[in-house]
Write a structure and sequence with these properties.
Strand content: 35-45%
Structural class: mainly beta
Number of strands: 26
Number of helices: 0
Distance between the termini: 51 Å
Helix content: under 10%
Shape: elongated
Strand order of the largest sheet: 7-10-12-14-16-18-21-24
């Protein structure tokens, strides 16, 4: 079952939801495993309480504002984010267990986004939001993030079939046991950094054919050795800085 917000401003907890984009306003707030769909017609929504574990969140075409307002928006499935996402009270977060899609039209500076499942990341050139990866992930070929924190399992930037950019701008920081593998052709880091500070096992591997790391600004690779087994492997056919 999918639920749509009202065409006018509303709070999340209000019984102003509809089963279609018709502004019927005859449904209670979304429950567990239910989908939520924002459209061009949807009004602004303020989260006055945390959400249930939603089946999915589709905000494609949304131009209004979703204010997290210090709450947690929990999505068990796919989350497609568009429009404006604010966090007026601060401390709010978006938890996603499926794939994450951030459209070019998304405005969500400073929003904390946590990936808890094994889904792809498609960011469409959008760098808004701070992304934390809790489990193994496969980012899409081309994406932008202000910051990525990988704190478990692996970060694998090898999905997709086309050559492309794996990370543009921002930072990739690992915490704990994390193996980072970058094996796509033409992996490009622009004014970015790849940093590992924790003294846990974990390896950084950069392979493939041609990679360019542009060092304008604060670009660097810093892999602090800790316990045995940590290593940095640069194995590209052509590697330039």
């Amino acid at each position: 079952m999918a639920k749509y917000p009202a065409h006018s401003a509303m709070n999340w907890s209000e019984a102003k939801w509809s089963l279609a984009d018709d502004d019927a306003q005859d449904q209670a707030k979304p429950g567990g495993a239910e989908d939520v769909i924002f459209t061009l017609n949807s009004g602004d929504v303020t989260m006055d309480e945390g959400s249930a574990a939603l089946g999915g969140l589709d905000m494609a075409g949304h131009v209004g504002t979703l204010d997290i307002d210090g709450q947690t928006l929990d999505i068990d499935g796919v989350a497609e984010l568009e429009g404006t996402i604010e966090d007026t009270a601060t401390g709010g977060a978006i938890e996603v267990s499926g794939a994450l899609v951030k459209s070019n039209a998304l405005s969500a500076p400073g929003i904390a986004i946590t990936l808890n499942g094994t889904g792809t990341v498609t960011c469409g050139g959008n760098s808004d939001g701070l992304l934390t990866v809790n489990t193994a992930q496969s980012p899409s070929d081309s994406f932008q993030l202000a910051a990525i924190t990988a704190d478990a399992d692996t970060w694998d930037a090898n999905s997709g079939t086309d050559q492309g950019q794996a990370l543009v701008g921002g930072t990739l920081t690992t915490v704990g046991y994390v193996d980072v593998t970058i094996d796509k052709d033409a992996f490009i880091v622009l004014n970015a950094s790849i940093t590992k500070y924790a003294a846990n096992d974990g390896a950084l591997y950069i392979g493939g054919l041609t990679h360019r790391i542009y060092r304008a600004g604060a670009t660097h690779i810093h892999w602090k050795n800790g316990t045995a087994g940590q290593n940095v492997t640069l194995n590209a056919t052509s590697f330039g800085v």
